[in-house]
Every structure is written in structure tokens, then in C-alpha cells.
Amino acid sequence: QVQLAESGGGLVQAGGSLKLSCAASGNIFSINDMGWYRQAPGKQRELVARIISSGRTDYEDSVKDRFTISRDNAKMTVALQMNSLKPEDTAVYYCNMIVALVTTPTINRSFWGQGTQVTVSS
Predict the structure, then answer these.
(1) Cβ contact 93:48 at 8 Å
(2) What single DSSP character describes residue 72?
(3) N or C terminus of the chain with fewer C-beta within 10 Å?
(4) How many C-beta neighbours within 10 Å does residue 121 have?
(5) d(Cα 32, Cα 12) in Å, to the nearest integer?
(6) CB neighbours of 95 closer than 8 A, spacing ≥ 6?
């Protein structure tokens, strides 16, 4: 029904930067929340950042001053600019969007990308 295609993950040295992007496709009527989650080895999945339809953003405390989330509603994309990366940022990062489908435009559904690996070397 909905596919989320992620890009931008990879290897980077501590202090470096990466930009993750996620593009939605499918039978989409509207997109409400967009966000990024991550799961590091031995840890639970956590919210990294989200941006709701009004443009308001929320960040996990450890990334608040380093990461920036943005969205382009026309392109149905969300991006995460990650600066000053630390080894503890190493994780699989997942794109998430809350979507209303054309067939059921009043119902919100959660969709996930396949995940992209971010590895920060010390």
C-alpha cells in the first residue's frame, strides 16, 4: 500500500555528518506525522526525531542540538540532517510516517521503511 524508501546511511568518522532521506510512495491521501527511529545493538527502538503536519518538531534529548528533521509535503519526503556524529549514534535508522490512504482518507496508519545502517567510528 505504502512504501518508504530510505537513503543516506553509511560509515562516517566521529564528528562527521550524514543526511538521511525517506520518500513515500503509494496510494496516499495525506501524511500526518513523519519521523525517524533508531535501534542500536542491545537497545530498544527509540524515537530520534519527528515532525508533525503543523511543522512542530520533537527530538530525543541526546540529539537535540545536533540533528535537524525536515519535511517536504509536495515531495512526500522527510530528511534527517545529522551533525557532530558520535559512536553512540551507531544504529539502524528507520523512517516512519503516519499516513491516510486514498481508500480510507479519515484513517491514519503507521508505515515503516526497511531501515538504513549508520555506523560512526571512534
Answers:
(1) yes
(2) E
(3) C
(4) 11
(5) 31
(6) 4, 6, 20, 22, 34, 35, 36, 78, 112, 113
Q: What gap in Å lies between CA 79 and CA 5, rounded to an integer?
A: 12
**Closest of 42, 69, 41 to residue 55, by C-alpha:** 69
116 C-beta neighbours (distance < 10 Å), count: 22
3-class DSSP assignment, residue 52: coil
